[in-house]
Amino acid sequence: MKIGLDIMGGDYAPKANVLGAIAAHQSLTPDQHLVLIGDTQQIKPLLSENGFNPDHFEYVHTDEVIGMGEHPTKAILQKPNSSIAVGFQLLKEGKIDSFASAGNSGAMLVGAVFSVKTVPGIIRPCLSTIVPKLKGGTGLMLDVGANADCKPEILLQFGALGSMYAEHIMQIENPKVALMNIGEEDEKGNMLSLATFPLMKET
Description:
Elements: E1 2-6, H1 15-27, E2 33-38, H2 40-49, E3 58-61, H3 72-78, H4 83-92, E4 98-100, H5 105-115, E5 128-132, E6 138-142, H6 152-168, H7 191-202
Parallel strand pairs: 1-2, 1-4, 2-3
Antiparallel strand pairs: 5-6
């Protein structure tokens, strides 16, 4: 498996991402490989400064960066040689198997829709994060950013996406889906929660 990593995205890039790549390398299995996407003239010296052999990684050089405050759609279209745009192009072409970035979250969503598309029937993708559970194990929380406003039908689809991810990626059999709210009672919550809960309950 080839994992594409955007080295130029994020508040403390590229150094923090290079250090993260070094740490990740230690836990990879023999069939997993990192492909570092970004300005190689900055990346390789940072690896050497930290006593790491640059030959352990593959590289795809880019010379553009999408800033955290840039408009996602415009940035993806106007910066085709940015690390995020190139990462998604590599994913679309099958040259990498997955792609990760700590950069502009909106650009990540737009790039995903433009390149790898959505699951059939899903209108909008979302962001997720793995969280520890009080009684042990881990859970999946979504949406954790990039979607400021959603309709009940969209939240229902997010639940479906989370369920699929938990089952197929996290290997959780029959995952439970819940709506985060201000209380457990059916009648609690804002208008969006009140409209979404019945849809999820019926599904």
